[in-house]
Amino acid sequence: MPDETRVHRIRLAGPWDVITAAESKRIKMPSGWRNILGTYCGSAIFKRSFNSPVGLKNQRLFIVIPFTHGCGSVRLNSQFIGEFDETGSGTPGDSTIEKKYEITHHIGSYNQLEIELTCQPDLYPECGLDSAVLLEIVEDQRC
After folding, report:
1. How far apart are CA 64 and CA 85, in angstroms?
2. Predicted pLDDT of residue 112
3. Over 60: is that where the pLDDT of 122 sits?
4. Nearest to residue 118, comparing CAs of 64, 45, 66, 65?
5. Higher-confidence position of 117 and 140
6. All residues at 6 or more sequence positions from 104 whose CB lies less than 8 Å from its CB, including other chains
7. Which residues span the domain enclosing 69?
8. Side by side, which strands form the sheet with 71-76?
């Protein structure tokens, strides 16, 4: 009988805060850059709070970010998790090019996720987080 890894994904949709040098506002995600910030070219911080899933035992946690046509970094609870640069070719929403970051050892009972994203909408009209950011729970086969 082959090993089957169980994966559960939670969409981090709903209210996010987006902060630029000029403004701060609450938005519903996912949404493309132009829908949120128009033709603004530069950096924005997307923030989302969430509670830790309950009943975790022998499981690993990941943040999964869809293809963005932008570059940026990921922080959880003010700790640097990783960075990304998606300025090449690709199809938004293509799961083969999503970015995945393990957060198992960074998660607390209450968490603040920050994704800093830099976009140039004149060069990359599809930039932004137009697909859902996900919290992925994976059964750890090593345990």
Report:
1. 14
2. 97
3. yes
4. 45
5. 117
6. 59, 60, 61, 62
7. 7-139
8. 24-29, 14-19, 42-51, 110-119, 71-76, 79-85
Q: What is the pLDDT of residues 78-111, one digit of tens each?
A: 999 999 887 654 444 444 578 899 999 999 999 9
Place of tokens 């830099």: 118
Residue 1 lies in a domain: no
Secondary structure (DSSP) of 83-140: EEE--SS--TT-GGG-EEEE-TTT--SEEEEEEEEEE-TTT-TT-EE-S--EEEEEE-
Q: Residue 38: CB partners within 8 Å, gap ≥ 6?
A: 121
What is the domain count for the chain?
1
Q: Would you say residue 2 lies in a domain? A: no
Asked, for residue 93, whether it belongs to a domain, the answer is yes
Residue 22 DSSP label: S
Query: Tell me, what CATH number does 113's domain have?
Result: 2.60.120.260
Q: Is the pLDDT score of 50 beyond 60?
A: yes
Q: Tell me what pLDDT residue 71 has.
A: 87
Q: What is the mean pLDDT of the chain?
A: 84
In a domain, 11, yes or no: yes
Nearest C-alpha neighbor of 82 from the set 107, 65, 68, 58: 65
